[in-house]
Design brief:
6 strands, about 30% helix, six-stranded antiparallel beta sheet, 7 helices, Alpha-Beta Plaits, alpha+beta, single chain
């Protein structure tokens, strides 16, 4: 049985002579070889590096994909594609050639509501040094990040967060206008 997955993809370092935006398109195509099929892809956006000052601007997009894989299997597929593009996990929130994040798996809450809530409520200072040792879904910070929500607005505006109860459109509207405005469209959505 196939599930729908929400993903975010970005990069701010070129690889093999290709600009980050070109890497995104190639990586999305490569996901198919890993049994993850993008069915809707957002426009490509330029976004400031997160956290601020941590590197050059990113090229970012979001997508909806179908897969018969489990959420853990989809995450493994994302990591395999990242590795092919030279992704090295050396610094949390550092510059990277490619970053593919699993944002949500239908309406699943992983590992459970209490585990999700712990990461959602984690103080900003602790986020810089702590990282979960298990998959947390939906992504516990998605509602805070314009670089995730603005592209997701293109492909899944009506998806409803299973814990917070708000749609992508509602969460995006709650982001400060300056943050939303920092996400600038670079290119129209690619054809699949």
């Amino acid at each position: 049985m196939s599930e729908l997955y929400l993903g975010a993809i970005g990069g701010n370092r070129p690889t093999k002579g290709r600009a980050p935006a070109d890497n995104l398109l190639e990586a999305l195509a490569e996901l198919r070889a890993h049994r993850v099929t993008p069915i809707r892809v957002s426009a490509i956006y330029r976004t400031p590096a997160f956290p601020p000052g941590s590197g050059p601007d990113f090229a970012n997009a979001a997508f909806v994909a179908q897969s018969g894989l489990t959420p853990h299997g989809v995450l493994s597929a994302f990591h395999a594609v990242e590795a092919r593009f030279g992704r090295e996990r050396m610094e949390r929130w550092g510059a990277r050639t490619l970053d593919i994040d699993l944002i949500a798996a239908d309406s699943r809450i992983l590992p459970d509501a209490a585990g999700w809530r712990r990461w959602h409520d984690l103080a900003a200072e602790a986020q810089r040094v702590e990282s979960p040792d298990q998959l947390i879904l939906p992504h516990p910070r998605m509602q805070d990040r314009a670089f995730v929500l603005v592209p997701l607005l293109d492909v899944a505006p009506d998806w409803r967060h299973p814990v917070l109860g708000r749609t992508i459109a509602e969460m995006c509207a709650e982001i400060p206008a300056a943050d939303r405005d920092s996400v600038v469209k670079l290119a129209d959505a690619p054809l699949l």
